[in-house]
Amino acid sequence: MGQLYERGARLLRRLYDRRLVEPAILDIASDFPEAAQFVAALPALRAEALSVARRFDAIPRFHDIMPAQADISANDARDWRMYIMQAYGVPIHRNLTRCPTLAALVARTPDVLSASFSFLAPAKHIPPHRGPFRGIVRGYLPLVMPLDAAGRPAAMLTVDGTVHRLHEGEFMLWDDTFEHEVRNASDKVRVVLLLDIRRRRQPPGLRRLSNLIIGIVGLGIRLQRAKIAV
């Protein structure tokens, strides 16, 4: 299953790469100015994530939700857990109701297709990989970021060969089809809000294709909502 997923992802990326010339890191002001609303809500979002984390073992690991991604999620004995509240436009109602601040933000930002809290265990390493689909871009907002002895963020996100150390409340918008990896070099859990956002600048043909893919994936999400809900 993993090989089939990766083969399909390569074909999809190749199709988009022929017509999209965009960098790995995108400009928030032009591509997602609504990021400011999420940053302004940081204290409430952090409180909601920490409330969810009280039942940490009930939050599914990423490969429990997506077995095809076991090579990056189950690569070691350390957890990467995902509390998914919306996926490709499909709300996970039970999860959303526990996070009213995030639910309200997502409801008034229709280009946000997916919203999740990502919990990365101490010393967890997510090895280099690439996302499958350039019709969306990724929003990344640290809510709980451990610091190292020098006061720097101890969890590193490397995108296209560049290491990013983001403090709590620093929003980054990026294209996850570029190779990326994550490492939590601390003894504490790192918590990040992840958003999948509809890519706004696309040629008309790609926009139609993206909408079709989003709809098809959304149908699949509906079939496994029970596995995602906590």
Q: What do these coordinates show?
A:
- With 230 residues, the chain is α+β, with helices and mostly antiparallel strands.
- The protein has a single domain, classed as B-lactam Antibiotic, Isopenicillin N Synthase, Chain (Jelly Rolls, Sandwich).
- Helix content is 36%, strand content 25%.
- It is built from 10 helices and 10 strands.
- It has helices at residues 2-17, 28-31, 35-40, 42-52, 62-65, 70-73, 93-97, 100-107, 204-223, 225-228; strands at 80-87, 90-91, 112-120, 125-129, 136-144, 155-159, 162-164, 172-174, 180-184, 190-198.
- The strands form 2 sheets. A 6-stranded antiparallel sheet has the order 2-1-3-10-5-8. A 4-stranded antiparallel sheet has the order 4-9-6-7.
- A hairpin with a 2-residue loop joins strand 6 and strand 7.
- The longest helix is centred in the last third of the chain and has 20 residues, at 204-223.
- The model has no long low-confidence stretch (mean pLDDT 92).
